[in-house]
Specification:
The protein is of the alpha/beta class. It has one domain: NADP-dependent oxidoreductase domain (TIM Barrel, Alpha-Beta Barrel). About 40% of the residues lie in helices and about 15% in strands. The strands form 2 sheets. An 8-stranded parallel beta sheet has the order 3-4-5-6-7-8-9-10. Strands 1-2 form a two-stranded antiparallel sheet. α3 runs parallel beside α11. It is globular. The relative contact order is 0.16.
Amino acid sequence: MPTRRDCLKLAIAAGATTALPSGVLAAFDAADLITRTIPKTGEALPIVGLGSSATFRRVAQGEDVAALAGVMRALVDNGGTVFDTAPSYGASEEVSGKIANDAGMTDKLFWATKVNALGRGEPGPADPAKVIAQLERSFTRAHKDPIDLIQVHNLADLPTQMAAIRELKEEGRIRYIGTTATNPRRDADLEQAMKDYPIDFIGVDYAVDNRRAADRILPLARDLGIATLIYVPFGRTRLFSRTSGLDVPEWAQEFGATTWAQFFIKYVAAHPATTCVTPATSKAKHMLDNIAAAYGQLPDAATLRKMEDLVDALPGA
């Protein structure tokens, strides 16, 4: 059961406002931060990070991006490091890179971006010159060289684009390389890529009501020593819609979840092949809620089944 101190931490996280209270970092004990290691190197990463698609992307495309600075500060000030973006996420890559640089946060972030120089519907192969040009723009936008991780976005033309990032890794300009795949029809292609290429990371969707990746992809990643970034643990907004009006069950406090966001993130984080969960948000109070899931405990196997049963019984499956 949570201690009185645990309850204080969770109450602060659950009640946070967009203007974060000063000293909120004191609510979290660094010793309680859950990390996972990157199998290829043993480098540890906090198990919760920040994505920049969805609402983050929409705000980045507007004129007032001050809220995003608060989101990124909430991540860094509360122990998070992993920031996931992509050139295809509108202005997210450029805006977040400027925010981090202006705030002196660049070196505190594990910067993960992607490459896909193919246009929408373009069959490939990609023009190598365009691939390199896009990569160089990412270095400029991130204000970081080397970049921590670059992945081929959605398996696009792996022979050309993986060759480009492998070469940059060999030159020391990229620390880790990988690929992403979020379309269920590409699962077999992702499995093959994991076997064929010397990749360090994959990025996949996984949620308590979208457990497909746990069947083959995540176990294969663990077997091959490949780290994972987990996307859309809320099913974008699907899981919040399904739990609208419902209280988080009291038994969730046994593993430190007092909000639905923490419930959903801790479910995903509990998989042994999960390296980092990267939900996107454009609000600092939601970032604080999310990062709270990186502290304390994770549900055990019996509790995970209980969580699945609860969600499976909800309307909207």
